[in-house]
Design brief:
The protein has 110 residues and is mainly alpha-helical. Helices cover 36% and strands 0% of the residues.
Length: 110
């Protein structure tokens, strides 16, 4: 849910880290439990599926080291967002959205 709002940059960084690990060190299948072998493809499909609902990162704010092959940084297709729409998208969830109905957030340990 947050990858569509203010979590998009973080999601891109994490996806790029996975890609770098895969390209230079170890195949994805060796990093994850066999049941999660298709997770990277599922994640990538979310970038594509939600491309028109993700606020894009301005080109000048994409890190210099990101190669063109890391397409997810440039996945958003809608580039005509107003400031009001961006603010609404970033704040379109509440803490209760992150928990099941019978769950409540607990206290954080010191």
């Amino acid at each position: 849910m947050r990858r569509r709002g203010d979590g998009f940059v973080s999601a891109c960084y994490l996806r790029s880290k996975i890609q770098i690990l895969n390209e230079y060190f170890v195949p994805f299948a060796d990093l994850v439990h066999p049941a999660d072998a298709g997770a990277r493809e599922r994640i990538d499909s979310l970038y594509v599926k939600d491309a028109d609902d993700i606020v894009p990162i301005p080109p000048g704010e994409i890190p210099w080291w990101v190669p063109e092959s890391h397409w997810w940084w440039r996945a958003p297709t809608r580039h005509d967002w107003t400031e009001a729409e961006i603010n609404e998208k970033i704040h379109d969830y509440s803490l209760s959205d992150l928990y099941d109905e019978d769950e409540t957030p607990g206290e954080l340990s010191p």
